[in-house]
Every structure is written in structure tokens, then in C-alpha cells.
């Protein structure tokens, strides 16, 4: 009898080609499937809520799979963490109805992007934030970010060559906040851009961030964001922010 298992997973994505199994390197999905195979004694397919890119991290990625093994879920967590690399941790395993699918059952996802401004970045932060020397205008970025709220066609904010049925997505929340960092963290300021939506295109969050950073450095005015969104042209939006600053925070069901 098949059992459907929901996993909550955290990972440090610096050393991986991304979530999805690929022939050219180590992936998060591949590491999980290899570990499950040792428990199940047969190939197991892991379905992720989202396919994070190379270098992107997760605080709360969700995945689902089906197994026949009778192992208790608490023992499953311990067994997986004993086999997985230390930069991937299974935080929780829950048995779910067989109708549950980590990707298809999603209501919303929350992503957080971290930017550190100042003359340098701490070596302990270099893998987890985009370093920009110039200060950013947080208020202007908040104003510009309001244009993304609601349902829009984000064709101009996806990676070139993306193949999707529709590029329409709904953003329910976009928060821009900034705090001072103490000297032990390298000084400067930490800005977080947190976005919640019903789905995200490839590079969508990173392009939103790149566009807002142009607002924050006065290369654009806040009103430009709505115009860029309406153009649906990737060349008119800002740069794709580096992968290392992006975290998948939470998946809601």
C-alpha cells in the first residue's frame, strides 16, 4: 500500500545545480531520491513545491513522495538526515492523504531576498546576500513594489526561453524592510524583500529585485515599475539579481 509523505526541507543551495535532478551536477532532488532509494529499496520520485535555481537556498521547501515502507515518520526524518549531506536537512515528515501533491496543492509561496549595502560584506554573509556598495532608497523601493501587487502578466520578468502555459501570476504581498547590521556582521545595512504569490516564473523574484534595486539606486523612478510590467518585455526590466540572496521561506497549502 502506498503512503504519501509530505516533507519540509531546508537547504544551503551554494553547491547544487538547483532543486531539479540534472545530469551535469548534484541537485537537491537527486540527493533526496538517492537517500529514499536506500530506505525503500526501489526508485522513488520526489515532487518539489518549487524548482529553485542553482545557488538558491530554502528555509522551508516542501516536497511529496509515495513509499510502501512502513517506517514511522519520525524515524524517516532521522534516517534521511543520517544519509543526506549536512547542507540539506529534512525538518519534518507528515503522512498525508494520497491526493496531496506538493506542487499541485500549493496555495501560495513566500520568497525572501537579502541585499547588504556598505563598503564590504562579511565573509559569513557572502553566500547569502547580494552585496551592493551604494545605499538603497528603501521608501522608493516600497513605492515601486506596489505596482507588482495583484494579478499581472509577468512575461517581462521571466527568464528568456521559459515555456509556461501562462505568465499571469498573483502577488498578494511585497514587503521591503531595512535594518542596520552590527560590526560582527560586517556593518552596513541589510535589506530584505519578501514576496508572496500564488506562483512564480523562473527568475521572476530575482528580476523583481533587480528592477527594485534600480529604483533604490535612482536609475529608475518608482512609477517606472508599472510601465515596465505593462510592456511585458524582459529587456525593459532590471537585471536578474544573483542567486545567492534568494531564499524559499515557506509554502502554504
Could you walk me through the main structural features you see in this protein, from its secondary elements to its overall organization?
The chain has helices spanning 28-40, 73-83, 138-145, 204-216, 224-231; strands at 3-11, 47-48, 57-67, 88-96, 108-117, 130-132, 150-153, 168-180, 189-197, 246-252. It has 253 residues and is of the alpha+beta class. It has 2 domains: 3-96, Pseudouridine synthase I, catalytic domain, N-terminal subdomain (Alpha-Beta Plaits); 108-252, 2-Layer Sandwich (Alpha-Beta Plaits), CATH 3.30.70.660. Strands 1, 2, 3, 4, 5, 6, 7, 8, 9 and 10 form a 10-stranded mixed beta sheet that branches. Strand 2 and strand 3 form a beta hairpin. Helix 3 (138-145) crosses helix 4. The mean pLDDT is 96.
Per the CATH scheme, the topology name of the largest domain is Alpha-Beta Plaits
Sheet-strand content, in percent, reads: 25-35%
Parts with pLDDT < 50 across at least 5 consecutive residues: none
Can you summarize the main beta sheet? 10 strands, mixed
Separate helix tally? 5
Write the CATH homologous superfamily of the largest domain.
Pseudouridine synthase I, catalytic domain, C-terminal subdomain
Mean pLDDT level: 96
How many angstroms does the end-to-end distance come to? 25 Å
Helix content: 10-25%
- Radius of gyration (CA) equals 19 Å
Q: Give the CATH level 1 class of the largest domain.
A: Alpha Beta
Class by SSE composition = alpha+beta
- Sum up the overall morphology in one term: globular
CATH architecture of the largest domain: 2-Layer Sandwich
Number of strands: 10
Domains (count): 2
Give the H and E element order: EHEEHEEEHEEEHHE
Amino acid at each position: 500500500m502506498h503512503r504519501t509523505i509530505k516533507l519540509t526541507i531546508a537547504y544551503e543551495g551554494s553547491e547544487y545545480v538547483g532543486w531539479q535532478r540534472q545530469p551535469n551536477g548534484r541537485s537537491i532532488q537527486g540527493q533526496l531520491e538517492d537517500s529514499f532509494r536506500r530506505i525503500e529499496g526501489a526508485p522513488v520520485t520526489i515532487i518539489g513545491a518549487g524548482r529553485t535555481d542553482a545557488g538558491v537556498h530554502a528555509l522551508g521547501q516542501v516536497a511529496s513522495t509515495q513509499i510502501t515502507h512502513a517506517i514511522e515518520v519520525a524515524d524517516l526524518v532521522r534516517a534521511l538526515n543520517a544519509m543526506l549531506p549536512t547542507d540539506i536537512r529534512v525538518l519534518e515528515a507528515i503522512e498525508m492523504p494520497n491526493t496531496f501533491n506538493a506542487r499541485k496543492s500549493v496555495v501560495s509561496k513566500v520568497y525572501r531576498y537579502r541585499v547588504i549595502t556598505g563598503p564590504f560584506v562579511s565573509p559569513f554573509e557572502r553566500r547569502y546576500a547580494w552585496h551592493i556598495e551604494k545605499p538603497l532608497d528603501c521608501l522608493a523601493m516600497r513605492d515601486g513594489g506596489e505596482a507588482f501587487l495583484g494579478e499581472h502578466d509577468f512575461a517581462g520578468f521571466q527568464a528568456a526561453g521559459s515555456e509556461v502555459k501562462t505568465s499571469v501570476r498573483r502577488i498578494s504581498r511585497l514587503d521591503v524592510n531595512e535594518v542596520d547590521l552590527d560590526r560582527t556582521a560586517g556593518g552596513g545595512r541589510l535589506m530584505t524583500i519578501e514576496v508572496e504569490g500564488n506562483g512564480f516564473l523562473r527568475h521572476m523574484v530575482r528580476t523583481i529585485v533587480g528592477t527594485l534595486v534600480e529604483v533604490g539606486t535612482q536609475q529608475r523612478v518608482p512609477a517606472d515599475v508599472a510601465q515596465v510590467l505593462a510592456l511585458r518585455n524582459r529587456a525593459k526590466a532590471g537585471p536578474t539579481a544573483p542567486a545567492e540572496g534568494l531564499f524559499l521561506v515557506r509554502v502554504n497549502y
